[in-house]
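Deliverable D5.2: sample structural annotation.
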Amino acid sequence: MQLMLYFTKQLDFSWKNLSWLFLKITVFVLLTRE
C-alpha cells in the first residue's frame, strides 16, 4: 500500500514535469516561428 502511494506520487510528479516541458516547447516553437 505504501509502495503504491509512492509510485502514484512519482508518476504524478513526472506528468507535471512533462506537461510543463511540453508547454515550454510549445511557447518556444511559437516564438521562433515568427
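Annotation notes: The chain has a mean pLDDT of 89. The chain has one helix and no strands.
The annotation will be released with the project's public dataset once the embargo ends.
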